[in-house]
Amino acid sequence: MSFLFLCGKGKVFGFSCGLRKGFNYQQSCSLVNVKFKWVKDKALDAVIAGERDLRAACNLISILSSAPNGRLPIYHLSRHRGQLGLPHDLKLSTFIRRYPTIFHESYVFDSAGTRVPCFELTLEALNLHHEELDVIRDNVMDLIDRLRKLLMLTKGRTLPLQTIDQLKWDLGLPYDYCDNLIRNYADLFSFFRLPDDRIGLKLLSWDDALAVSQLEKNAALQAEEDLKNSCLAFPVGFTRGFGLKRKCMGWLKEWQKLPYTSPYADASHLDPRTDVSEKRIVGVFHELLHLTIQKKTQRQNVSNLRKPLSLPQKFTKVFERHPGIFYISKMSDTQTVVLREAYDCQRLLQRHPLVDIRERFASMMRKGFLDRSRGVYKKIADVGHKDPSKIVHGLDSEVESDYKLFSEYESDDSIRCPP
């Protein structure tokens, strides 16, 4: 897929004007009513395929690795189910058993003497997780800066932890980022209680060096002669066979020529009913997706960002109105927004070290899924004596006890395995 700037050359304004000040632009262009059809992009859909299972597995890996003995019974893991994003009709034990290269199954006894499934990481998965922790330590300031820039996009440099939790996987933040990352930087961040009694995170100070968007950085590298021109254009590319109408092409060319307002600048002067305001919204999400390590996030993850980002109602409509900038994948029963310019077919152009780790986990999952479907992994009943040290008291009544521990695997034909 080739990308182009539909207003000629990309241009950037002088940074000396101050990024936190808006543009004094006469807004005479109202919001033009144009509609683009959604066209499936198989290459970008392939990027999304298996993402749900990979994210759930990586979260379980973090949970198991932090357990005192590295092993937890299924009822304990079920307490974290809400954070895994799995379908409601899929039993957690069924999901875990699909990936025997990642999870090793044993059992413990409850107080009634019933065998309860218990899971721990395989040695291969544990070793890869340790590599992941090393990568996080080596890139900790990069991850911190991504979080700082996210907070700088918001009004008051604050966000509820619940909102950050929804984005932590995309930002590359570790599962337990609050305890093992944020608390180490008390000079940068502060926890506080919101009016609705939720816990929020505040960035304590503004950093002008970080308040430069990726689009501005790219334009500055081009060293255009008229550097003070504010009409930056977004890279645009369409799926083959898109069939862009001449009317829409004309509107898009004119839209690209409108002034670009930095997502880190005050935009309170912009009329939300204009194309100029819409270009600012596109710029906000263009920057937000650049902050993610794989340049994508689920659409629902940004649904709570309207007020913090000072956006108008129905702000996510920009994803449909600009299919040359954003692609909406509908894989895995959800909508994922992908930044087109970040990919060459299925290849991510700028690869964060954590992406390589995740791809290795995905490869392990594929291998385990296929090997298990071929019968490589067999359930072997343990007929040994009950070990008192493995007795677990106080078993929750909602344990998945209806599953026969040594029965055949349930069919997973309808489940998509990671690519």
TrEMBL record:
It comes from the Eukaryota. Signal peptide: none annotated. Coiled coil: none annotated. PANTHER family: EMB|CAB68190.1, PROTEIN WHAT'S THIS FACTOR 1 HOMOLOG, CHLOROPLASTIC. It comes from Hibiscus sabdariffa (roselle). This is PORR domain-containing protein. Residues 39-368 form the PORR domain. The lineage of its organism: Eukaryota, Viridiplantae, Streptophyta, Embryophyta, Tracheophyta. InterPro entries: PORR_domain (IPR021099), PORR_fam (IPR045040).
